[in-house]
Batch of 4 targets.
Target 1
Amino acid sequence: MVGSNIESFMQSVSDDIKTTLKRTIGLAGVVIISLSAMLPGIFVTPTFAAEIMGPGIWLAYLLAASVVLPGALSKSELSSGMPTSGGSYVFLQRTYGPLIGTISGLGLWMSFLLKSAFSLIGFSAYFIVVTEYFDVEMELIWLSMSALVLITIVNLLGVSKVKAVQTPIVVMTLLLLVGLCIASFFTGDFDASIPIDGALDASGWELAEAAAFVFVAYAGVTKVAAIGGEVKSPEKNLPAGILLSLLIATVLYSAIAFLMMATIPGEWWIVDGKVVENPIYEFARVIAGTELGVIAAALSVLTMISMALAGILASSRFLFAMARDNLLPQALEEVNIKYETPHWPILITALAMGLAIFFVPLKDVVKLASGFKIMIFIMINSCVIILRRTSAEHGWNPQYKSPMYPAIQFWGIIAGGILIAFIGSKAFIGGAAAIVAGSATYYLYGKQHAIAQQTPIASFRKQFQSSTPSQHHNRVTAFHAADLGGKNHLTLREFQNALKALGFKYTSDESRCIFHNADLDENGVIDIDEFFDSFNLEQE
């Protein structure tokens, strides 16, 4: 089964590359996108990690990075060989088949929405610092929920071009964090022996548990692979960008964790029996006073909201992508006629995030998100092993190949399994929930609806290419008549209505496959003129 899945997968990848999206993102863009997805981790996780193992947490960040590295190398190879949009879900679905694809898709959806929820909870802790400074009172939980409503509306309206906003925010955040690190050396209480002794005194158990907890801080390192179809020279820029951003994040996280513990005296991460949820504010306040701390808190708010904005966009797209593979109902891949956004996936994701924010403590949110991401990284490492072992039969020969194969992949799998064990029961409960939900979804819906794309697509192309001038005119007229939004675009429902009006007798699932094949940029709409031009070019 795996072999046949890989064979069809390789053919679909070859077809995808022939009709790829416009590639506009260079190496710098890859690094910015990866870093923007990772930075929120350092704003929340240090104090919770310190609660586990004390001031030696810098070593936990290094250990976590060593477990992330195999996944980063493996995903770099997968992205190089399959430079198409979709990321981990596509790799897993097409390597292991629709059942594992459904389970992994739902697991990825949950991990992304949990990380976004964790960003919103962390954002509110920093925002409270700003409001208290200006003597304004606000409830923390309702602040998070208000931010969730705001970013949901923004996503529904289609204002998803967050890269232009994220770039200056990422740059300012990096400058702030580097500046704090440099300034920490000049504080009177600086004592480098505290984090060093803390690392040496911590037990192996505490180190592993802390590393498992902070794993979520690196979870976004491979996020850029999901837009591989838009990266210039992906065989070079994707691996280089992923590995460079991981190196930057590892150095930055470890340095901040080390210097934070060396600068702030005492067990400052616990106040009145509760873990401090705004460590960067405390770091800045001790170094340069309350005013700079408030500025740092304000920048932290911007950073985490922009990450949550992109997070709800990314997590909702997993449901959208699964629906495009006929593994979820058609409603989840239909886009709004006016705004051309997948409104149902966005609303469902926002609702799930709201429940997580309202009912799950921040520490548990981080544990669940870390647990899901470690599981996905384990599976990604296994994909490379399978593809390498079947390369002769299925032509797996990417331009970038992971070094130290297969030892590095086995390290990622074994170390990842150990870290999951240290996260505890919540990771297993979360993983079991994804398996049960994914299996139920596949057997109750996906198995009956997922069909081979080649049959309806080949039939449709043959019928369209053999049209007379009169038939062509009628088809163009019907397609424009179905365009209720008046944008020269057709949503899936509009496309299906046009086919019915023209007398094409395709099932709902078959027409969905035809639509997906025509929707080259995978945004849920097709351009009418480009659609007909593609057939004219083929006939010529």
Target 2
Amino acid sequence: MKFVKVVLLLLLGVGKGPDLLAASGGLCVAVTPDEIQFRWDLEVPGKVSIERLSLATNQLTADSAEAQSSESVVVWRGEASQMRATTPRFEGGRDRLFAKYRLCSADGKEALGAPQYVTDFRAVLRGKNPLRAGASKKGITCLLDEADGVALGCAQVNENIDIGVLLDLQSAEAKAHFTYEGRTIGLRPAGVALLDKHLKAAHQNGQRVTGILLNNVRANTPASSPLVHPLTDPSRVPIGPSAFNTATEEGVFYYRAIIHWLVERYTREDAVFGLLSGLVIGNEMQSHWSWYHLGNVDSKIVIREYSAALRIADLVTRSMHEQFSIYVSLEHHWLMSASEDPTKGFSGLEAISGIQRISTEGGNFPWALAFHPYPQNLFKAEFWNDRSAPLRFDAPRITFHNLEVLPAFLGQPEYLFEGKVRSIALTEQGFHCSDKENGEEEQAAAFALAWKKVQALPAIESFLYHRHVDHPQEGGLHFGLRAHDGSSNVNGIGKKRAIWSLFQSAGTAQEDSAFAFALPIVGRADWNNLISSKFEAPRTPFHESDKVIYDFVQARDSALKENVQNVARKLVGPEDEIQRPGLLQHPMPKGLGRLSFKVEVPSEKEGDGLLLFEAFLNHEKSTGAGFAVEVDGKEVFARSLKAAEKVPAEISLKAWRGQKVTICWIVDALKDPGYDWTTWVAPRLVLRKSLTP
């Protein structure tokens, strides 16, 4: 496992991180009813000071991947040998639990460790009621009929909680409100009433509820709203789910205020309003363009802002209740990204390693993982054939096919919390019912195998199947236990599918007899030995060491096309590794096919501009084709390739430093265009810093 860890960190370009002392910041922060308490283990002579910093990241622009420093306030100064200090917890109505603290030299000019958050809540009186802990793993998302949920034996459900539906920040006199830190905060009665209704019904039905905390931003949402992150442009939000505003003081205030209200209202021992067991923070954060919108930004910014939201949620909830859970939300792309644009998405592995690093630096806390292990192809239920989900820690995807990779990965020492593997909740995943003759059988068989694997993995606490009923606006996907009824009502409940009765039998004495039909479909003789503990060694995928300043595959729509049959993005390489993007440029039967791009070459001051690519004749039946590259009409590369032949190239553009040039990619069918899949693999202009002065 240690070897795997080191390899993956190298693949991601992540260093080993700070030493143990720096990782703890040299400071431990605890909270009592009246004080913030500090202790440290640094032996330094003379005096030291402790600074308080805001929770807001002050990340107001996308220019930097690092959060900007906020103003600090010295809360204590004294002899380092004391190894202990305290400061009052409250300052007026403000709770200073919600801050981060840094140990510094006496004059404050030298930081003696990373900023630390409160991580010790033992002295605070907190709720202890179990919030439906220990419930069966069987659950459903988007439940449209309570009686049907009870008949199915659902022990768990989810609840989407949009903070904008609850908070009324526009009305001068809101119809409902609550008080937090001396401020009156408006609520929308209809939003509160609907949430009460759903949570009370779930409680009456004995169901554990996991909340999905969302911040939906629409085109008509005022950009000035404290709920809107400064990097989120409401006019560009594609779907709705957006980042929480962790950048400004007001944004952080309302974010923690609504979480406080949720925990206070829905963890009461009398459960008069129902119970909430935990909150998933946002949705599928590594695919942020669609599901945690921050605009076109670097992955480091997304990870930093999301980690801030996660930490703030931990401070609020863990100071109020011992059993309340906070979850990171990830979809099934692991070492690969769902987006070809790095400013719109990145890998789940980069996300989880970044969150782990940041959380450790500020003082480890018990975040859990909400994961969505959909099949490789959402339209194909048969995940047992998923080739992009091998048994490796560097798998491109994690689906139900290789689900055991997830708890094993989190079982590595650096990911543990207090020596234990973090809980995993499967909060959204389903299987498409195709129009094939055996479509319902395949869908049901997929659930059977997935359920058996989940039952065999103790670290997985829940399996919330998505969804109860097909949604007519879900891109043609039919995940439902029931079909849609075909009416204009998006929530129209139609007929039961075969998966309905199978789901009902899961976790009952009838399970094995009901599941038996699935064995030949999934290619098994029995349900034994479903979980593998033997993983393959990681492979070394391509890792870009230079800064990419122009990606020709991404820019393909801007090219001037001449005499080509087809231009398309084509992934190259085995499915069980990270495939590289290629520019497929199929030639015409006669003449040269040309793709021309206008590109600015870096100046001498910036560094060396290099054109990198591989010319690849990507079909074994081709009779051969020609490849060439021109820069402003000058040929810089020319080769004739045989079938399946690949040639790498690195072209210096020093002669065109600081100029805007035309780079032309040229292909020639030669004699026969059949099977001429002429492909430029990862064609890109990179900036390489010169090693010479």
Target 3
Amino acid sequence: MNRLNITSWARRADHGERQPWRSWLWHDLLAGVSVAMIGIPQSLAYADLAGMPPIVGLYAGALPPIIAALFASSPYLQTGPVAITALLTFGALSTMATPGSPEYVGLGLALALVVGLTRVLLGLLRAGWVAYLMSQPMLLGFVPAAAILIASAQLPKALGVDPPEYGNAILRAAWSLTHPDRWTLAAVLLTAMAAVLILGGRKLHALFPGVLIAAIVGVAVSGMGLYPGDVVGAVPSGFLPFTLDDIPWTAVSQLPTLLLSGAIIALIGFSEAASISRRFASEDRTRWSANREFISQGAANIAAAAAGGMPCGGSFSRSSVNRLSGARTRVAGAVTGLTVLAFLPFAAVLEPLPLAMLGAIVIVSVIGLMRIRPLLRLWRLSLPQALIAWTTFVATLLLAPRLDLAVTIGVTFSVGVFLWRSLQLEIDVAAHDGVLTFTPRGVLWFGTAQKLDTTLLDALADHPDATRLVIELNRLGRIDTTGALVLRSVLDQARVAGLDADVHDIPPQSEALTHRVLGPDTDPLE
């Protein structure tokens, strides 16, 4: 388990040296505050994406980073509202309640609790490997499709239009794009300004606070009465509402959906945190623990449920800013949470913020996730894996907002392809000077072993003059008990047919089992 004493946080990642506390604390304070300045407007935007009141996003960006910092494995990971988790939250809850309603918010707390408990349980059971059940092809299909849905949902806000209530976000976005006469000029100008500040600012310097400046300009323009469109509206000021009373404990009929969606968010949402942490650990040549990170992210979600927040996860963009700002330890994450916490009594200053600005912030933040080129490249690399990715991609777009079903389809298809490939045992048969040589490729297990028996019968019929059988096993990945028993049966049948029979190059991982099954009368190393 993670050590919580503060001196362990002062150990430098690259050399393992203890530093004077003033040295690392100043860097962590600066980094934590810098991330909070970006995280505050992003939290509002992601809360809106999740169908939550704006204040819920701030609550999720306050206490969860503090709790996560106590257990985290990575010194750079920043926890709070993130785009993919927000979209999954909306997909899970929008079919059960009206977005923004008290019932909807209560179900969001319950969902955060399920996500948190799932992650903590996986961490305590040391089941960090579960994060890898989300296959890379499935994620390659899901993430860009989710990013397209996120951008589509925010595009009407960014253009200042009110499209017809189509059931699909992509159709609403298409309607918005094809009706420029309905666009609000002020919204379009603010959206363009936000894109320039955020994207252009990154080219100037990685730490350019484009999101913060865009939000300040948006509040100023709206506050001066120069923006006629919709704004954030009422944002309660005050401190965190520590209570679990708002969780609908009696909503038993909705529990299966919450459990399924919570498990999916726990894994899909964790994949982003895991990729960030692994990447930084590799660059710094330090260790990273998936089990500790599961506990960290789980505890953060439990804190979100107790403090009026929403499901949260690790943010790639804010974690990158945290590292670039000079963060040295996990204290930086705690400072971010404390900064947001200190801002809550003044949250009402965000009420004039145009919704067009929030839409622009979200769209710009997910542009980098719309990676179609890797999907196209998969067709050249592997047809089965490409089918997994594209099936998930299409299912995500068509089944929205039920993204849990799309993920389930992707995972099921991945498992199906794995089983199908496991059932493929290719056996190369060669005959020369009366010697039959079998070279099986794949896994010799109970699902494929009988093919070896069938191949022997066919080979004996095709080569009646054969006098010897050699089975080369160096191309096999593994042999299970059934495979070893069938291998012995094939050798016995060949000897009964008058052939000398032996095996060569047993895989090392299956050597002991194969020796025991073949018995002392056969020398498999001959």
Target 4
Amino acid sequence: MPNVTITINGREMSVREGVTILDACQAAGIPVPTLCYHPDLTIAGNCRICVVEVEGWKTLQPACATPVSPNMVVRTGSPKVRKARRTTMELLLAAHDSNCPECERNGNCELQTIAEDMGIDMNRFLTSPRPVSVVEASPSVMRDNSKCIMCTRCVRTCDELQSVSVIKPMQRSCDVHIATFEDKGLSNVSCTMCGQCINRCPTGALYEKSEIGEVWAALEDPEKFVVAQTAPAVRVGIAEALGLPTGRNTGQMVAAMRMLGFDRILDTDFTADLTIVEEGNELLSRLKAALVDGRKDIALPMITSCSPGWIKFIEHHFPGLLPNLSSCKSPQQMFGALVKTYLAAKEGIDPSKVVSVSIMPCTAKKYEKDRPEMRSSGYKDVDYVLTTRELARMIRQAGIDFSTLQEEKYDRWMGSSSGAAVIFGATGGVMEAALRTAYEIITGKEVPFRNLDITPVRGMEGIKEATIQLPDAMAPGWEFLKGVPVRVAVAHGLVNARKLMEKVASGEADYHFIEVMACPGGCLGGGGQPIPTNPEVRQKRCQAIYEEDCSLPLRKSHENPEVQLLYAEFLEKPLGHKSHELLHTHYTEREL
């Protein structure tokens, strides 16, 4: 579209025709407050905090929903605008539980920030907030409708980004509230527990179900041996959650956790590497059975299974494709099973005294740990899950100055990892890691360091497709793959997963391997990551993840020495009896 000339606050500028006034203001660095607007979502225009004055127009206009036109003259801070915004904010606050010190989002609340910017310290309207109604909506998500401002960001997130659509505005007038159909609760509908609604809520109406109290109790119990694992995306989110710039803070995170009192601090990336070895071999065994043995019962394409939100989604919406899922557990659950078997034996600890704590970017992990099949160690494999935000809260509670900490290393046995495991935190990372390992298995040749970056599966496009052309020279036993074009696809965000699965179910798609992550951007955009989230924030986290991969001397999962030791001492071989017992599982068809 061509550019048009407009004037904002007396400043003439050229902007692309068709963009909104809000877009033009943001591009020019002119602040305009918003509440219902979010860059990931469609425009709602229902909060009216972003109203501006347009010369010649009778009424104020919402900047988020009003496109620019040639020679438009806009004022964003006129007396009329300031008065309207203040009145709107006072009305919102009158219906809002304003007990900020007890709110999960105190200090990081968009409503609170805008009210402070407007200088609202006394409300001229009679306050009548909705009753405090904290509901344990699911094993992952808590809801307090007394903090809800009906911006509908959560509804649009569930509809547009995740295509799950389990929450809507219910009832009318002063009784209107966000809920599931017939107020069944998120546990009784097809909610995936992904927590994306939490990440886009501007207030404290939605937040994760916290297990901080239980973890503190375990740390303070001298009878307990508390082991923590930290996921790859946490290391690029923890500093952000503590008010510092996004970056790679692995060593400082480990140091902070030692100060909190964890007995062992280990790395989920260890089992990310293990997942690649198991999953890569599973893919190759399926290809061999289908292409060489001619078996018709082999489900292809094989689809990754490490995202619990995605797993619950396919169980509800595409149960016919459950056989296509890799049987591998997620790295979190593999880790939990090994902590209470392999690690407990190595440390000489009674597994009944081991408390397994996961630090995750994901709220769905809280649901996953409670699945009945996740007890292959003879105990509950993972006892507690803390989000990145919860770990940051514990660090603040302990009075630790994160920015001054010296870097420390993970503990041994399950603390070593490769760059391939690190990139699990970004969309396309599991695919890239798997291809690095699978290529070396079937060719018997080392992939040159310079060729390890498989760029076709990287990036923030919703669906990415690539074809990997295998060479003619193959290792013994893999000659049947000589010159085969391996077709792969990557999807992130469940709306994109749905599109891809519809193609697979209809037979339109012809892939060998598919990676799906429930959250936009992959785990780095998980429901437990720091708030706010937007495309720019996710891109910064993604960059930090790939920088860490490139900085590591080891970048292929099967070369992890601790993984090799695990097989030598305990598991014996990939896809062996012990591996199937501890590292693999099955999935369950669920009703919509």
